[in-house]
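Database export, one record per block. Field names are fixed; values are copied verbatim from the stored entry.
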Amino acid sequence: MTLRLLLTAALAFALTVPALAADESHSIAGLGPKGKVTKVHGGFEFTEGPAADKNGVIYFSDIPASKVYRLEADDKVSVFREPSNHTNGSMFNAEGELVSCEMDGQVVVVSTDGKQVRPLAAMYEGKRFNAPNDLVVDRADGVYFTDPHFRAPEPLPQGVTAVYYVGGGGLVKRLIDDLKAPNGVILSVDEKTLYVVPSMQAEVMAYSVESPGKLGKPKVFCRLKQPAGQENRGGDGLTIDSKGNLYIATGLGLQVIDRDGKHLGIIEVPEPPANVTFGGKDFKTLYITARTSLYRAEMEVKGHR
């Protein structure tokens, strides 16, 4: 998909959802938000990939601009990495390095100062990846990542859209290849379940984790609520709190699902969200990347790291 088509699709997606005032977001008992969803910064092209370091400092990407930003303590933003090779989803590893999905075809590890970049997963069976989208780092320092078709060359370099795992030794394994557009990915708090959010189906999938990089049979975890008159609209990025609740970015806002697959409510955002993470000094602040802006919401619950 070309950049123009990506932005056109994003705009069309946004137009299907009515704009919401920031104070219209409804609180979910015991979770939050405690107040308004507020804009931190705007004026970007397409924000994605929020990630919090060990101190809760937020980093996020602007995909078309090929930049990764850092949100400073005074709420100003600075450029952490440029060019970022159209970085999308990211997460910090145990060493404090930023592990990033580059939509230009690989997963990389970025040093704490943003100056050194090393490939973590550059190829599978001798071919570049389509366009790595989102990832999660496990306790073994392995990485699960999705590789759909968004912004990928045509024909697809891998021939399929898939989910992969790369372990500490650098071996890349293809784990899932039967989802049309696997997008968001996260592990449960106990890391016994891998959740995958496709963009082209309403069902969120759950896979038992038998060992790092080895999955059991899939099951439907939940079905996302749909905009009026639409079907099979999936989701984008997601995060998880300390209680095991998922916060999934969709056209309706952040759909909050408990660990049993029950819908708890929707946190509405003024622009359709693309991704979300917990951050701040106590990890009780949701940071939401939504089209041209970065938003935040103070929560009652703490995010899981």
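Remark 1: The chain has one domain: 3-298.
Remark 2: The first strand starts at residue 38 and ends at 41.
End of record.
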